Structures are given as C-alpha cells and as structure tokens.
Amino acid sequence: MVNPQVYEVRCRALNAEQWTKAAATPKRFSNFLGSGDFTIHCDQPGEEGLWPKAINQQRRIAELIKQHDRKEIDLWTEPRDWDVRIECGGEKFLVHRKMLAREQSSLKSLPRVFSDGSKTKFSCHYTTPERMANVLAFIYDKSNMEGERFVPSEDRPLDGGIILNNVMAYLASVETDFPALRDVAFSNFQKAIQGVKRFFDDADGLIQDPRLVDEAHGTPSEEWDCLGPVATDDELATLYRPFRIAMQALLDFYVYNQDKFFVDEMLPLREAMWGMMNDVYCKRLLLSKTFRNDEEPEWDESGLWQFCEEEAAFFEWY
Fold first, then answer.
1. By CB neighbour count within 10 A (0-12 exposed, 13-18 middle, 19+ buried), where does 126 fall?
2. Tens digit of pLDDT for each residue in 104-119?
3. pTM listed for this prediction
4. For residue 30, what is the enclosing H or E element?
5. How far, in Å, CA of 247 to CA of 307, rounded?
C-alpha cells in the first residue's frame, strides 16, 4: 500500500513563487530574467525576452553580416548561422532574418526571432524556386542584377536570355512587393528590347522585301526567308525561343495569379512585352522561314498567340 504522505511529497508541484526563487542550474534553462543561466544580459534593442542561445545567435549573425557587407564572406552562396528556412517548390533557401528585414518587400515581416533560438520555417507557394532565388540573391547582393545574365551587351543584341531573366525577376518582384528589384529588372529589360529593335532597324537595308522576292523569283509566301542576310537561324533562335518562354511565364502569371497580374505595377512589363510582339514578332521574325515553320506553331498550340491578341486589344483600348 502506498504511503499517502510520501506520495504527496513526491508529486507536489512548485507554485509560481517557489519556481521564481529556485536557483537556475546549467542543466535547466529558465525564461525569466535574473536567473543564473543568463550570462549575457538583454541590453540591446530586439533582445528583450530572448534566451542566451538566441541572443548569442543574433549577435553572431550581426557580425557575419558585417563581414558579408565588407565582401569578406558571401552569405548567399555559403549561408552560416542562418535562422530562416524558406521552402519553395521543393527547394530550400537558408537565409538570415536581418538580411530580409533590410529590404522593403513582403519577406521583410516574414521571420520572427524565437526566444529559444529556434529557426523560422516558411513554406512559399506563390512563386517558383527560380524567382524566389532572384529575390533572395538581390537582397544579399545588388550586383547580381548587374551581371551578364541580366545586363544586355552590344555584342549580343539578340540574346533573348537577357529578356527572359529580367522578366522572371520582374514577376518575382511583383509577387513579393519588392519595388527595388522591379525597377532594376525593368531597366535591364528595356535596354534589352531597345537593343533588339535597334538591331533590326539598323539592318533594314539588308532585309529583303517579301513582295520583291515574290515578284523577282516567283517564290511562294511559305518559302520566304528574308532575314538570311541579317542573322543566321541559330542567332534568331537565341532571341525568339527565350522570348517565347518569357511570354509563357507572363501567360502563366495571368492564369494562376490574376490578383497580381492586374495591379498597376504589372502594366509597364505587359505593355513592353506587347510592344516587343508588335515591333519584332509580327514585323520582323515572321519574315524568317525557320521561325514560321518551327517556332510559330508553338505559339499557336500553347495559346500564346491568343493571349497576345488579348493584350493588344487591351492596350489599344487602354
């Protein structure tokens, strides 16, 4: 038979007053100020209520960010002491709360510091891993948008990859309400399409008039290939294939993210893409036999051409 008196002694819980007076030991963490566990005092802004583990972590991160800013280390490519994990489309991004808090975007208010130093986990379903990577890379290093993947070159005016990369970055900026990234991406995008238009304008004298080709040689319209003197089929493909992917991304954005597609921030990109279609696709690329035979069917089958016609109707009305 159990002794009631012993049972009562063994199971009696400490009340609040007794608990706060109990001495803290290295093996027992405590969440009240003044206990022996706190070797670091919460004397800096943002440290109130944090446990020693969290305080130490945040101070280490602050020092690492200083080293990152001095270009001594790269926290984007080699994340150390990260405290936020973003999961997006099967990819994981290990980042730092203090870095996210620097920029005016929807990620600024995402993370919070847990008192015990636990890491923040965020599952993102509104964008793709590639576009999330654009956002995060720009937060960590603004020069990422100044590299050859984003800035057009006079030596490569038909590089459609530049257009595609900046369209993706622009869409990412709209998804995350990130105006700084949006402005840089659109500036690069404008320079890229201006380079494409300039290339064809300068080559106007070399582009054969299809009517003259038809009259001189009796060539049927389906055999017209008037861009041969201007660029090879491979050079043209480096322009129109990435551009198709960029337009497909815009169409997908319209289908799956209509709330964002119709915001004012999207109008500059939509209008510029429509202008590219009108000035380059309809008036230039259709003069290429290879484009008409190999690429144009892709636009018809995927619904891109119908989407472009709807955009044209909108901007003619707008």
1. middle
2. 888 887 656 555 556 7
3. 0.79
4. none
5. 9
